[in-house]
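Quick start: what a row looks like.
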Amino acid sequence: MSGDIVNLLGLPRAELETFVADRLGAKPFRARQLMKWVYRRGVAEFSQMTDLAQDFRAQLGLVAKITVPQIVTQQQSVDGTQKWMLAMDEVQGIETVYIPEPDRGTLCISSQVGCAMDCSFCSTAQQGFNRNLSVAEIVGQVWLAHREISEIRGDGRSITNIVFMGMGEPLANYRNVVPAMRIFLDDLGYDLSRRRVTLSTSGLVPQIYKLAEECNVALAVSLHAPNDELRNELVPINRIHPIAELLKACWHYLEKQNGRSVTFEYVMLDGVNDKPEHARALARLLRGRPAKLNLIPFNIFPGTRYRRSPAEVIVQFRDILNEHGVIAMIRRTRGDDIDAACGQLAGRVRDRVVTRLGARRGHLHSSVQAS
């Protein structure tokens, strides 16, 4: 390894064990001790890690650090939802949201500064794309939230679920998202069940197949339309990976990882995708498959041309799906008074690149390629 000072927050267990062996001549149990201090106890200063030998702590201080993003602003909704703006550098910022519920505490984290997917109904997409987050920047959101959230639940945790539903397309930052998820799942990291870590994607099909070989988490897919013509408009990546191809990848992921179901997200847009015929077409796509639908009331943001479907329309849409044998639920909107609801995260994106995805299959801007 090089002589650079390394941020330990971004190292999964195997890499941390290699680091302490190569740079410090230490045995693997030292890495396990470090992981417990950093993740279980939320300690960032080596001097406070009292069961480590003093000389080992001194060595660590010369070659390693634990650096987390800085909080720029913090807001709390009337419903208890909390949102943090975190500085990624001098000008860039991302947003992270904590949603408390009686039986769980869900942290919604970001994977990129901005997003290149250009989904027409999403505020984040309108900001454009700047860069991928590093593993440390992804894990750092969880570390900070653990520090900031005082409410502890029945199982001794403040955060019970982590969802990649913040800014960015997680599978476009595959190289850094997967190591971060391994830390979330590791029993020396955050020790979460695979069903409590959810990756939400707009549909990067090759990366779904790759993920099926490498990491077992819950999969959520932003569907938003029952046919290719409409989805091409709402979710432009569909021009490259149409619905049939996307669904085939989803069923493969479940088979490979022995998963229970895929959650499909469907934002309800007034007069656009919320008609009874849309519900029936969705039912034909998903009936008899291991799938469930989250119906998401659209959350308004400045400049959008879309409006939220009326409540009675959403209920009727759900009922049609249920009557046709498809499990569908209406997601309760949380944090919209602080712009923390689904699709509202904007962050602070400079030097942005707005990607217009071409209709020709196989053409994809480099900023959304998985690295």
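That is the whole record. Confidence is low (pLDDT under 50) at residues 347-371. The two ends are 21 Å apart (CA to CA).
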